[in-house]
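Consortium newsletter contribution from the modelling node. Members have asked for a concrete example of what our holo predictions look like. Here is one, prepared for the 2-acetamido-2-deoxy-beta-D-glucopyranose complex that several groups have been discussing at recent meetings.
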Amino acid sequence: MFVKGIASLLPLSLVAVYASPVAVQHSWSASTRRVPVMLGVMSRCPDALLCETLFDNVIPRVADKINISLAYIATLNASDTEFGVSCMHGSEECAGNVQQLCAAKYTPMRTWWEFVMCQNYHGRNHIGTSDVALKCARTARIDWEGSGVGQCAGSDGSGTGSEGVQLLKDSIRLTESLGITTSCTVVINSEKVCIHDGTWKRCENGHEVKDFVDQIEAAYQKLNGQSIGSN
Ligand SMILES: *[C@@H]1O[C@H](CO)[C@@H](O)[C@H](O)[C@H]1NC(C)=O
Ligand SMILES: *[C@@H]1O[C@H](CO)[C@@H](O)[C@H](O)[C@H]1NC(C)=O
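And here is the predicted structure:
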């Protein structure tokens, strides 16, 4: 969906003449590697909404350099008959997590991110309801039936579709394996760089939009610089 780095679109001759040697190395990369950016969240958590709102301003500045994902914090619970999962803010939160995971699986980043922003806009106590899910699908221009999202999350919008519930369980296992326990945790290139839990915590390199952009830019240079050096 997203074009490769602008630099890779430049004719090589142009790059060779005008770019510094370091930039040339990056530009010649056949395929640039995107920086994985992950937010550890719970869909109804105020801290998650805060992080997502902040990243809504980060993403446009680094959109072609990142691969963003949401990873969910909840507890596997075989006694829960609906999801097999317990979510801190109730079963509606589990449903919201499922809806978001299904949108992320079946639509491009811009689309599912808009879906999440729309859910947040409706207020956290409505996230996970089928009403808001179906409304936000229309807002984000998701064809609920045709795209695969509806089949994944439940065609009625309930967030209880079996594929989506499985995605939620997989996501919970992932966050557990990465030691992500707090919503919201910002992870850039596999490194936990910042937490918002009532207040900002352990954000060594800052927590403003610019700070996250800078950290992503640095990780991007590192990822793509190293990959060329080893060729
Ligand atoms: C983003 O990462 C996921 C897996 O984490 C992968 O399936 C997908 O292809 C990646 N997308 C891009 C554009 O790199
Ligand atoms: C597991 O689910 C059951 C039934 O919903 C609930 O009573 C119990 O508190 C849950 N356990 C945990 C650890 O969340």
